[in-house]
Amino acid sequence: MNIVAIIGSPHGINGNTGRLLEEVINGASASGAQVELIDLSRMKVQPCVGCDACHKIGSCHLKDDFEGIKDKLLTCDGFILASPNYIFSVSAQLKALFDRCCSLVHCLPLEGKYGAVVETSGGGEDEEVIRYMERFINSIGAQSVGAIGSNMAGSRSFPGEEALFAKARELGAELFRSFREKPHFPDQAGYRASFKTRMKRLVELYQHEWTYEYQYWQQHHADTVQPAPPPAE
Ligand SMILES: Cc1cc2nc3c(=O)[nH]c(=O)nc-3n(C[C@H](O)[C@H](O)[C@H](O)COP(=O)(O)O)c2cc1C
Fold first, then answer.
1. What backbone phi and psi angles, to 5 degrees, belong to 11?
2. Whose Cα sits closest to atom 15 in ligand 1?
3. Domain limits, the chain
4. In the CATH hierarchy, which fold is given to the domain comprising 2-185?
5. pLDDT mean over 48-59
6. Over the stretch 159-195, which tens digit does the pLDDT of each residue have?
């Protein structure tokens, strides 16, 4: 099983989030997964400019590391998203990646895959950031096997560290198991279904402009797409 672990901290694997992520990776590796780290602090992912090219042609005009990261997400068996809490949200580095994934959000190509979330904060409010990251996982089609988040006790040290690290390793093992067992998470089903319906309507509405995405839906979610009416004269 191939897992990609994407970390959005400017401190990469050497920061607090990196320390907690290491334990999740240890759990996945001990189960037999191959884990590739994608450290956004060492890569270039520019902010989305809203040009709609991805909707029309399926790729981005901006020349940087995004398309390579996108390919790894599309071909992996599972993935981990890791970020520090930056003002009640993810870091700007990870947010830039999320925004560049706009076409993945419209097409939900990660259906059938599983992700996990890692978060750290200085003082708390972890749940808000975790919920946001898990919603991103759902909005590209995947399911979240779970999340781990914690405030800090010091640099790279956590309150109740032993128990926290055990939980982190178990999350990595759970992500590995999901590849074989394909679990269904009923608590995510309602959101995923309503989000998919919303994206279907949106892509149908823009079908004559967003030709890549409309074709993607016809090929991959054929049962849920209406035939395209002829363009107006
Ligand atoms: C720009 C910035 C914004 C932050 N915002 C918050 C916040 O809103 N709430 C919080 O509890 N901690 C906040 N923190 C603290 C970090 O979330 C915390 O130190 C985290 O563990 C850093 O992880 P890292 O070492 O992987 O970068 C912030 C830190 C920075 C630099």
1. -90, 5
2. 122
3. 2-185
4. Rossmann fold (3.40.50)
5. 98
6. 999 999 999 999 999 999 999 999 999 999 999 999 9
